[in-house]
Amino acid sequence: MPRAVANDHETVDQICLRTLGQTRGAVEATLAMNPGLAAKGVHLTAGDPLNLPDATPTTTKATVQLWD
Questions:
Q1: What distance in Å separates the CA atoms of residue 51 and residue 3, rounded to the nearest whole number?
Q2: What is the 3 state secondary structure string of the chain?
Q3: N or C: fewer beta carbons within 10 Å in the chain?
């Protein structure tokens, strides 16, 4: 389980993007793994520790180009 420490005025989604490289599903999982985190408000204070979920690999959909 990865851990992160918040910078001053950083949000949970910024931390997930910085450490995991994604926000989809990671923000919700982070809030579930850290009881009381949502009560701190949107902006965290410097030094707040967070437990983060394991990063899940993202898949990209194949795109079709109409004109090459």
A1: 5
A2: CCEEECCCCECHHHHHHHHHCCCCCHHHHHHHHCCCCHHHCCCECCCCEEECCCCCCCCCCCCCCCCC
A3: C
pLDDT for 6-41, tens place per residue? 999 999 999 999 999 999 999 999 999 999 999 999
pLDDT band at 68 (very low <50, low <70, confident <90, very high): low
